[in-house]
């Protein structure tokens, strides 16, 4: 390890000597910890990172002046749709997806490195309970969906099959996630098929290009974004592990979508039959100004354009059918071939441009006092997982119904969207619809029949609470045996034990 004198000289050369400002006050342990952290930050790379962050932040926000003329929707032949396809085509996609799962060629990869700052928690989002009757966490729901899709594929093809679960964590989430999964026996998944790995961390930078000290002996660091996936795959030899297992197709998703369908056979099958090397699930934008990125083409190349980069005039454009021209909302739900990921890590990752996120970052001032700033003061540089779309030879998009597949958990209650309340309502409303479609009927306290399809409200609390375990049904299948012709009073849970009333 470098000495204090050597490290001070290095930092002076790159204009970051303030990181040793409190050296004289530190005990031997914190001194060693700080030196180790600084030694991992190669001086020239640190200088370039800080300069790049300050320069990028100084760049005026808003849409590029010529973007509107370069923007085009994806060609129709590159877009599939659940709602606009007939039953036979959906059956073929699903059949192919299950076939690939049964051949052990499909893995799922969870992006779980971010902190739950907006949600107001200090632990990983996957450990969060949104208030379901079962009290299941996001991690448990996802693990159980993996178990169910393995079961369905195995039953169809008469085999035992495995969908490995790769979980990308960060310095903040690795320890708690590993301990949580172990404490819950990996929710009955084989631990050998659950692979945790860690993304890189980058220093947080002030607007004038200085790395921030969050403590006297610690530099403020942040994960390098979900686009840090590609470096992390190489750092931890994840693609080699996939090759050893025979994995050819990877479903990548974000931890906070309570409705996510892991290793979705229809999505996998669509992408495989299309010969895609890269794909994205999308939902139709609810309104022009909705703050979601749009999957489209720029200069003929597929990419996600952030909502802040599209002018209101462009966002409001309508197609011949009256729908929004740029309506393919990105939901961080992607398909990749392993060979494409290998090419990205080998050749394209250095070409990815970091994005700026301006945040409130606690720091120690010149007197050593901890300061929690009232407004943003720091720059986090992130790469996005979808930044590699531009390198795909055959990119496709696949539109799915929002109410069946997308309800993210971003904000704490009582925000008006993407909260524990809206996530819980979305899942329970989905399960209520599934129950009605399977022939169940629900009554109130006095025996009156409750609302049924198609009169259900599009949001808010469902008329009755009926939670269905992923171990019983992946996407609404197989429920008739439990529910057909039966009448229930809310609330109930349908799990491996059957239907259980939760009321008094």
Layout of strands and helices, then pairs:
Blueprint: H1 4-13, H2 28-39, H3 43-58, H4 67-70, E1 71-72, E2 79-81, H5 87-102, E3 106-111, H6 138-157, E4 165-169, H7 174-183, E5 194-198, E6 201-203, E7 213-215, E8 218-219, E9 221-223, H8 229-235, H9 238-245, E10 249-254, H10 265-274, E11 278-284, E12 294-298, E13 301-305, H11 312-315, E14 328-337, H12 338-348, E15 355-359, E16 363-364, E17 370-371, E18 378-382, E19 395-399, H13 402-405, H14 420-437, E20 441-443, E21 466-468, H15 480-483, E22 487-489, E23 492-495, E24 498-501
Parallel strand pairs: 2-19, 3-4, 3-10, 4-5, 11-19, 20-22, 21-23
Antiparallel strand pairs: 1-12, 6-9, 7-8, 10-14, 11-14, 12-13, 15-18, 16-17, 23-24
Describe what this molecule looks like in 3D.
This protein is of the alpha/beta class and 504 residues long. Helices cover 31% and strands 20% of the residues. The protein has 15 helices and 24 strands. It has helices at 4-13, 28-39, 43-58, 67-70, 87-102, 138-157, 174-183, 229-235, 238-245, 265-274, 312-315, 338-348, 402-405, 420-437, 480-483; strands at 71-72, 79-81, 106-111, 165-169, 194-198, 201-203, 213-215, 218-219, 221-223, 249-254, 278-284, 294-298, 301-305, 328-337, 355-359, 363-364, 370-371, 378-382, 395-399, 441-443, 466-468, 487-489, 492-495, 498-501. The strands form eight sheets. It has an eight-stranded mixed beta sheet, with helices on both faces. A three-stranded antiparallel beta sheet has the order 1-12-13. Strand 4, helix 7 and strand 5 form a beta-alpha-beta unit. Helix 5 (87-102) packs across helix 6 (138-157), helix 5 crosses helix 10 and helix 8 crosses helix 12. The radius of gyration is 24 Å and the shape is globular. The mean pLDDT is 94.
